Amino acid sequence: MNYRHAFHAGNFADVMKHALLARIILYLQRKEAAFRVIDTHAGTGRYSLASEAAAKTGEWLDGIGRLREAKLPDPAAALLEPYLDIALPMVTGAPAAYPGSPLVTRRLLRKQDRLTALELHPEDGRRLAKQFEGDFQVRVIALDGWLALGAHLPPKEKRGVVLIDPPFEEPGEFDRMIDGVTKAHKRWPGGTYALWYPVKDRNAVSNFRFALVQSGIPDIIDAEIIVRDTGGERLDGCGMAVINPPYTLEAECKAMLAALAPLLAMEPRAARWSVKRLAK
Ligand code: SAM
Q1: What separation in Å is there between the alpha carbon of 46 and the centre of ligand 1?
Q2: 5-279 CATH pick, 3.40.50.300, 1.20.140.150, 3.90.1150.10, 3.40.50.150
Q3: Residues flanking ligand 1, CB < 6 Å
Q4: From 123's CA, which of 31, 35, 74, 276 has a CA 20 to 30 Å away?
Q5: What pLDDT digit, counting tens, does each position of 189-241 carry?
């Protein structure tokens, strides 16, 4: 396990991922009944932007950094506001930091809602546990997130979202995602699943989408943002496939990505986005 999210926290991919995650959770808030968020690959929850790791890549500057002064058009501005209200005060605070998915989620929980966060890396897992020490709404588990898709589903609330955000450092991660979500969907067909993936190897992405369609799982949308075109040498973009998305999400993604793609583009002419339905 070499991957450390501290090098990448707050980059364009985190912005896209956390903006969509926030919209999904905000939709869950529309009903009074409690919901659960399960974060299978949670990271540490909070990342210093003054750290050596953050300084080494400077990735956050081309991600959340660009949103500090941005004048976004409506409706994107209104849709992104809940996420930016969480992230920007931390980014501009002293010391500067960026919230990981567990912290973005925690800020959007009401008193009846719960978060289960899994992190396998011992050090990151310890940091995550410390972050939420004494918080009875959050359960941190130092376990393999893929196993959680079996062991923790369905949650007792029977409403909620599973974020699956693995590091993609080993070959086979796309396949593991398909296997994992197919099993999970059998155990809990009504849950929402948000699957983040890198756009680097375009063939791998096409195969992943094809496998999702072939899985027979209904009701899937797929959102993608492209910020550069290095032919797969670097992270050119990223995507999020959402199973059982809120009915509002497709239109919301279109509005947000249309504003974010030009803002986050590293090669302006490469900026692209798409939101498509993979299954009805
Ligand atoms: N979801 C986080 C966020 O948005 O802030 C970022 C997560 S990062 C992309 C992936 C994380 O998964 C890393 O912290 C890594 O240590 C962890 N990890 C790797 N393999 C894992 C596994 N099998 N189960 C749980 N966590 C794992």
Answers
A1: 13
A2: 3.40.50.150
A3: 1, 3, 5, 14, 17, 41-43, 100-101, 118-121, 124, 144-146, 165-167
A4: 35
A5: 999 999 999 999 999 999 999 999 999 999 999 999 999 999 989 999 999 99
Mode of pairing for the β-strands spanning 192-199 and 237-243: antiparallel
Tokens of residue 161, six digits: 């979202």
DSSP code of residue 72: P
Which of 39, 62, 165, 222 is labelled catalytic?
A: 165
**Considering only CA atoms, which residue is closest to atom 16 of ligand 1?**
121
Q: Tell me the CA–centroid distance for residue 143 and ligand 1, in Å.
A: 11
Alpha helices in 95-242 (DSSP H): 101-107, 122-131, 145-151, 173-187, 202-214
Q: Which ligand 1 atom is at minimum distance from the Cα of 99? A: 5
Domain range summary for the chain, segments of one domain joined by +: 5-279
CA of 164 to the centre of ligand 1 (A): 9
Whole-model pTM: value is 0.98
Q: Measure CA of the first residue to CA of the last residue in the chain; give whole Å.
A: 37
Residue 1 — pLDDT band, cuts 50, 70, 90? confident
> What whole-number distance in Å separates Cα of residue 240 and Cα of residue 277?
12
Euclidean distance between CA atoms 177 and 104, whole angstroms = 23
Question: How far, CA to CA in Å, does 263 sit from each of 63, 113, 260?
Answer: 9, 33, 5
Collect all residues with Cβ–Cβ distance below 8 Å to 269 and sequence separation of at least 6.
none
